[in-house]
Amino acid sequence: MEGMGSRSATELLLLPVRLHGLRLGRPIDLLLDPEAWRVLGYVVLCGDESRRFLAFAAADPWEDAINVRSALLLLEDVEFYRDRSRSFRALLGRGVASGRRDLGELRDLRLAPDGTVTALVVEQADLIQEIGPAGTTIESEHVSPA
Questions:
Q1: pLDDT tens-digit profile of 24-48?
Q2: Which of 87, 95, 103, 98 is nearest to 9 (CA)?
Q3: Are 109 and 9 in contact (CB under 8 A)?
Q4: N or C: at which end does the chain have fewer Cβ atoms within 10 angstroms?
Q5: Mean pLDDT of the chain
Q6: CA 62 to CA 1: how far, in whole Å?
Q7: Neighbours of 125 (CB within 10 A)
Q8: 86 CB contacts (<8 Å, ≥6 apart)?
Q9: CATH assignment of 7-88, given 3.90.50.10, 3.40.50.300, 3.90.650.10, 3.30.450.20?
Q10: Closest CA to 28 of 57, 58, 51
């Protein structure tokens, strides 16, 4: 994110993906490292309705667009990356805890220019606050069979 400071994940998902000013698509999800609070890349819905993976390191987010140097950076096998990561969209609205303490529901993430999550934006009892990700957990994405 050259020239940009901390950004919200939902803000990034509102930006078009462009190559030399031409719109290639729009991001519909962010994929996160399952072990660390870091963005791996975007799931991009392209103009031909296909979904592709764009590595975070290969993207250049600016104020009005996510720029790429080549359309070849939009990779076809999204499921390969999805299977090895956590979906930001799937985490939204889930409970956040620190130890046994409930911190509220996840509403957004704050991201450093290198993709590191600097804060979880949580809401509890109509109060929104930013909490550092260290030591936090998100309620399970998968429901165990009864």
A1: 999 999 999 998 999 999 999 998 9
A2: 87
A3: yes
A4: C
A5: 91
A6: 6
A7: 5
A8: 31, 32, 33, 34, 141
A9: 3.90.50.10
A10: 51
CA-closest candidate to residue 38, choices 109, 129, 138, 131: 109
Structure tokens at 63: 């104020």
CA 10/CA 12 separation, integer angstroms? 5
Q: Where are the beta strands (DSSP E) in 1-100?
A: 7-8, 17-19, 22-32, 39-46, 51-55, 60-61, 66-67, 74-75, 86-87, 95-98
Above 50 in pLDDT, residue 110? yes
CB 12 within 8 A of CB 56: no
Structural domain boundaries in the chain: 7-88, 90-138
The pair of structure tokens assigned to 21 is 């000013």
Contacts of residue 64, defined as CB under 8 A and 6 or more positions apart, other chains included, come to 15
How far, in Å, CA of 45 to CA of 75, rounded?
A: 12
Rg of the chain on CA atoms, in Å: 16
